[in-house]
Amino acid sequence: MWRIVAHRLAIAVPTLVLVSMIVFGLQKMLPGDPVLALAGEDQDPHVIATLRHQYHLDRPVPVQYALWVRDLMHGNLGTALRTGVPVTTLIAQKLPVTLQLATFAMVIAVIIGLTAGVLSASNRGRALDHIANIFALSGMSIPNFWLGILLILVVSVHWHWLPSSGYVSPSEDFWLSIKTMIMPAFVLGAALGAQLMRHTRSAMLSVLHADYVRTARAKGLLRTTVIVKHAFRNALIPIVTVLALLFGELLAGAVLTEQVFTIPGFGKLIVDAVFNRDYAVVQGVVLVTALTYIAVNLVADIVYVLLNPKLRRR
After folding, report:
1. Distance between CA 177 and CA 100 in Å, rounded?
2. Which DSSP state fits 52?
3. DSSP secondary-structure letter at 76?
4. Which of 40, 215, 237, 280 is deepest in the core (most CB within 10 A)?
5. Quick check: 163 pLDDT over 80?
6. Which of 283, 308, 297, 269 is nearest to 98 (CA)?
């Protein structure tokens, strides 16, 4: 196991370097100049020159990248151009919000996806199978922003069951925080649950035709025992990898949902940073997202080894 972890970490380092180079380079292609926006309406040439020197924007691009990497190695992601707040502080404020939303959404996706996938595969060709497939196609086809607006209109405006938008920290009001997370988490979880259902169904169908499942049935074991203990346990191996990819997709793809429900997470932070040409914030958010994505996949690899005895023997 430790050899696999070391191998994954060795791959993670050049991956992060490549991500940082791509993000840094693509930002230079964005239209507009953040220094001109900071200089105000007068745009005094002396002020503009001072700002360019302060943020190293008067240096060549490779030198700017080298200076940024140097600061990065010391744990300094820079400061926001608009507010002057350190990027690490902004990330520390916004990352827990997105992680909370992603965790809630993943719980919903797992409950919906695994349950529907197992029921669909174990009832292949029957009514439950058709209903689960209709749900999966609907979940993957309906846009997140449309479903979010519809839920706000029905659940919040007409029924007054849940808050329509906003965010409350669990430390301030735990139950209100749960209420504000239910709808956005359902919007994200329903779409991912539909994808997870398709993967679970496919994995279960391949396992249900295996020899050891036929042997378990021939021994006279209960149908539920065969499905849960023998089939589902082995089908989990490829599903774990899918779960890691979906969780990474949640962290990076919750932008529209956070905008619809006015959740001050990573999505809103990076959208505002792009509009403001705030290079340091965009670089920091993307780098932390990539690092989190790699960490989640590393955990998935470890779980994969624990679930697969053949890899443990190797």
Report:
1. 10
2. H
3. -
4. 280
5. yes
6. 269
User: What local confidence, expressed as pLDDT, does residue 199 receive?
Assistant: 85
**Alpha-carbon span 8 to 211, nearest angstrom:** 33
Encoding tokens for residue 239? 């599903």
Closest alpha carbon to 308 in 254, 228, 256, 235: 235
For residue 86, list its beta bridge partners: 79
Q: Give the model's pLDDT for residue 117.
A: 86
Token pair of 11 as six digits: 């791959």
Q: Taking residues 65-89, what's their average pLDDT? A: 81
Rounded average pLDDT over 229-239: 77
CA distance 228 to 106: 21
Phi, psi of 308 (to 5 degrees): -105, 105
Give CB contacts under 8 A, 24+ apart, made by 268-273.
Answer: 268/94, 269/90, 269/94, 273/80
User: Tokens 């209960």 — which residue?
Assistant: 222
Domains of the chain: residue spans and CATH? 2-73 (no CATH), 89-313 (1.10.3720.10)
The structure's pTM equals 0.80
Average the pLDDT over 71-75 and give the result.
81
Residue 300 C-beta-side C-alpha neighbours within 13 Å: 19
Beta bridge partners, 79, equal 86
Structure tokens at 261: 């429900």
Nearest residue to 254 (alpha-carbon basis) of 193, 190, 185: 185
* Average pLDDT of the residues in 73-94: 82
Is 70 exceeded by the pLDDT of residue 312? no
